[in-house]
Each structure stands twice: as structure tokens, then as C-alpha cells.
Amino acid sequence: MKKCKITVLKRNFDEELAREYGVESLTACPMLKEGQVFYADLECPEVFCNKAWKAIYQYVFTLAHGGATKELFYYGDWTRKPGVAICSCNTGLRPVIFKIETVCSFGKPQQ
Length: 111
Prior knowledge:
By secondary structure, the protein is α+β, with helices and mostly antiparallel strands. The protein is built from two helices and four strands; from the N terminus they run E-H-E-H-E-E.
């Protein structure tokens, strides 16, 4: 089984929807920051958001087990790099976008 590198690419915040549906003090995700990096295989990394983990786990599981490392996810109509998934947590008002990629034992992306 391989390790996966999880990089926080972007924290989004939909102000328009938050004004209509969110609680008054709602902001962008307070748990994760852009540029943070985590490593995982089948276990949620420490200090990683449990809700985000539930949303991205299927991609980590697939890549950790060698899936989509030579071919593209979802029939090739999603990402253009094998072994890379771009996905998000499912918090509709403030989703976080992640890049997940397999890494070798030295922490470098698989080629």
C-alpha cells in the first residue's frame, strides 16, 4: 500500500449563500489552511477534519491501493494527471479543495 499526500489547495467561502443560510459568525473553514500537507493511507491524519476525511477517503483509499495511478479517474474526463485526484469536502457554504496524490516512501510524488 502507498501513502498519499493530501495538500489543501483552497478554502472557499460562499458569502451569498452564507448570508441566506449560514449562522451569523460563519467564516471560511477554521480547521484547515491553504498549503497544509498531510500524509495518509487508510487512517485519517491527526488534526485533520473528520468531515473532510469522510468526503475524500474514497480517493485516498483508491490511490493508496494503486488505483488510478496509470489511468485517469472517472473515464479521463476529470483530471489530466494519473495518480492525482482533486476533490473537496462537502461543506456547501465553505468547502475546502484538496489535491491527493500517491507518494513513494521518500515523500515524493509518484511518477
